[in-house]
């Protein structure tokens, strides 16, 4: 009964959206469950898993662990050997730091090595795990929760995230195709695009948005200048670039671009909070004095600066936990471990914090400037 | 002088100059957070300690610092605290499930150069550590969103004491909707800034789309970003509900007295 009532309440447009979402939902799951032919690498699904050996080991540093050996029989899902059975061996430990325990139903990327003479069955080795279905699952969970909580705004937020992700992808691709353009220049252009697109999508076309865009760009520019001055002044002393992961390019540039883009979201957040709350005050009382606006703005800024800096801090520092554990368990000294693993992340978090705090007064003055401009027009 | 010392000093000076006493407190809280994180890691190294329970204890202490120390103990921060902890427990269950099945724990093929020479048989359960990393990276954003909702709800209730519980709840949701976009944005860019090098690496080494999506390191990062996003969305109805309930109860008590 309630379902029928709900159906009547929905407009035609909403009904269409719901249907399209359901089709996308079901379709995408059907696709990742059956996309094996799109992969070049051979995929096999585990049909049988048998534990054949287990062993207790103690490493050089006195860490105790168990090593297990599994025999897996898996069915190949794509390519020339599709439908055939492959025999795999897998070794894993209880800590699973660099290995996995597989069970029936897991899908694995494998390389086929040999045919076993008597049975003519294949043997191979495991390359990696097929994880696309989990990415899809959590992406849908994210989109649906965003939509249920935020309705239209939730949808716009998700849209702006997707658009920003595409811009980042395109910008990096462009950077790699063209060898002689600096990463900083590309980041600069991307930052302007991100700011304009995200703030318009989240906040609409109005003065609040213009003030927020101007404050964000100015805040990011000052952050860039401050960080470059310090990096130049100290010649990068204290930053352990040699421990920077995945570097194929000049590490200073990659680091700097990371700092600016990493802080950008938080800076936008501060800028939009400042401009919306001050514009709100102005709309409630058109005769509010500049001094009162300034005071309220600084008050709000004081309230948000601690928690905003915390957000960046936790995002950056938490990621280093597994590596720090690895170092400490391998008898590395605490000071050395922290120095090596945390220097870049701490610098990123601190620089982001500087960007956040500096954007507070910038946001206040910029918004007051836009409010005064509006006043002059009226 | 060391670049980290310079950055910390500039941050401290700016926080005090702009935020006064509260700014100084925010800086000290940042320092405390750092110490607690390191202490948590020191405990995690012990194979007999369950990383999940450790994480729950650590997040309790961290949210106490970030809510009660920066903002004082009052009805706003208390409801924010209850909401934060409930969200974390809910989110944690979901995250453990997905880290377990997606096998994103520990170190990836791409990190092999870095961990060469280290023993990886440590006895510490890295699946649980991975879940704990995801929760820890979200805690800042969750407490922030929570206090940003409970605080204006308190104001609304003060100005309209006759508001119904449902209306109060809906006003919380509406405040939440406004900050959802920017909070998700903040997290998204923060993570992207950290992963810039990785993305360049993927493109430079000609990874195919399929290889990127299925690689342990990329999946781990996507799952972290999206879990964080789910966390900041989930905290909105939870905080609105808890705050509406607690404010109504507290209001009824005041009337009786």
TrEMBL record, chain A:
UniProt keyword Transmembrane present: yes
Superkingdom of the source species: Bacteria
This protein's UniProt keywords: Membrane, Transmembrane, Transmembrane helix
Membrane-crossing segments per the record: 12-32, 133-149, 156-176, 182-202, 209-233, 253-282, 303-328, 348-371
Protein name: YibE/F family protein
Organism: Alkalibacillus silvisoli
From TrEMBL, chain B:
Keywords linked to the UniProt accession: Membrane, Transmembrane, Transmembrane helix
Transmembrane segments: 29-45, 52-69, 81-99, 184-203, 223-247
Signal peptide (from-to): none
PANTHER family: MEMBRANE PROTEIN, MEMBRANE PROTEIN-RELATED
The protein's name: YibE/F family protein
Source organism phylogeny: Bacteria, Bacillati, Bacillota, Bacilli, Bacillales
């Amino acid at each position: 009964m309630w379902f029928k009532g709900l159906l009547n309440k929905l407009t035609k447009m909403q009904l269409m959206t719901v249907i399209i979402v359901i089709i996308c939902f079901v379709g995408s799951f059907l696709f990742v469950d059956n996309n094996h032919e799109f992969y070049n690498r051979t995929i096999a699904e585990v049909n049988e898993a048998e534990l054949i050996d287990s062993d207790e080991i103690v490493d050089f540093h006195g860490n105790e662990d168990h090593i297990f050996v599994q025999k897996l029989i898996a069915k190949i899902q794509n390519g020339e050997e599709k439908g055939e059975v492959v025999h795999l061996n897998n070794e894993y430990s209880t800590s699973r730091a660099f290995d996995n325990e597989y069970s029936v139903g897991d899908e694995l990327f494998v390389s086929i090595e040999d045919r076993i003479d008597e049975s003519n069955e294949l043997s191979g080795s495991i390359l990696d795990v097929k994880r696309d279905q989990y990415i899809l699952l959590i992406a849908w969970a994210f989109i649906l929760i965003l939509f249920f909580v935020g309705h239209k705004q939730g949808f716009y937020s998700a849209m702006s995230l997707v658009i920003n992700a595409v811009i980042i992808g395109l910008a990096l691709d462009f950077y790699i195709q063209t060898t002689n353009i600096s990463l900083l220049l590309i980041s600069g252009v991307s930052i302007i695009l991100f700011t304009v697109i995200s703030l318009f999508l989240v906040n609409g076309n109005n003065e609040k948005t213009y003030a927020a865009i101007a404050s964000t760009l100015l805040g990011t520019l000052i952050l860039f200048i401050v960080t470059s001055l310090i990096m130049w002044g100290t010649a990068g002393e204290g930053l352990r670039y040699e421990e920077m992961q995945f570097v194929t390019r000049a590490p200073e540039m990659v680091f700097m671009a990371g700092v600016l883009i990493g802080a950008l979201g938080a800076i936008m957040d501060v800028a939009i909070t400042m401009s919306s709350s001050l514009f709100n005050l102005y709309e409630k009382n058109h005769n509010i004095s500049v001094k009162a606006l300034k005071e309220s703005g600084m008050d709000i800024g004081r309230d948000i600066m601690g928690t905003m800096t915390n957000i960046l801090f936790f995002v950056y520092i938490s990621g280093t936990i597994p590596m720090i554990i690895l170092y400490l368990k391998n008898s590395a000294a605490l000071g050395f471990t922290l120095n090596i693993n945390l220097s870049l992340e701490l610098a990123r978090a601190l620089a982001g914090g500087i960007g956040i705090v500096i954007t507070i007064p910038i946001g206040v003055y910029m918004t007051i400037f836009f409010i005064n401009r509006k006043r002059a027009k009226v | 002088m060391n670049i980290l010392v310079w950055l910390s000093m500039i941050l401290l000076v700016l926080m005090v100059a702009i935020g006064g006493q509260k700014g100084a407190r925010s800086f000290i809280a940042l320092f405390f957070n750092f110490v607690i994180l390191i202490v948590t890691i020191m405990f995690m190294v012990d194979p007999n300690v369950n990383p999940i329970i450790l994480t729950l204890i650590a997040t309790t202490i961290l949210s106490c610092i970030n809510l009660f120390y920066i903002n004082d103990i009052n009805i706003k921060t208390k409801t924010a605290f209850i909401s934060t902890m409930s969200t974390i427990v809910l989110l944690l269950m979901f995250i453990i499930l997905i880290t377990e099945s997606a096998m994103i724990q520990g170190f990836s093929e791409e990190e092999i150069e870095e961990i060469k020479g280290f023993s990886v048989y440590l006895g510490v359960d890295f699946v649980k550590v991975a879940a704990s990393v995801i929760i820890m990276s979200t805690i800042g954003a969750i407490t922030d969103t929570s206090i940003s909702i409970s605080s204006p709800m308190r104001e609304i209730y003060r100005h309209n004491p006759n508001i119904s519980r449902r209306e109060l709840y809906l006003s919380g949701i509406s405040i939440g909707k406004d900050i959802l976009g920017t909070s998700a944005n903040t997290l998204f860019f923060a993570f992207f800034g950290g992963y810039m090098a990785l993305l360049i690496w993927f493109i430079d080494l000609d990874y195919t789309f399929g290889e990127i999506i299925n690689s342990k390191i990329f999946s781990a990062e996507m799952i972290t970003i999206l879990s964080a996003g789910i966390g900041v969305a989930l905290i909105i109805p939870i905080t609105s509900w808890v705050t509406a309930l607690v404010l109504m109860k507290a209001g009824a008590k005041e009337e009786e007295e």
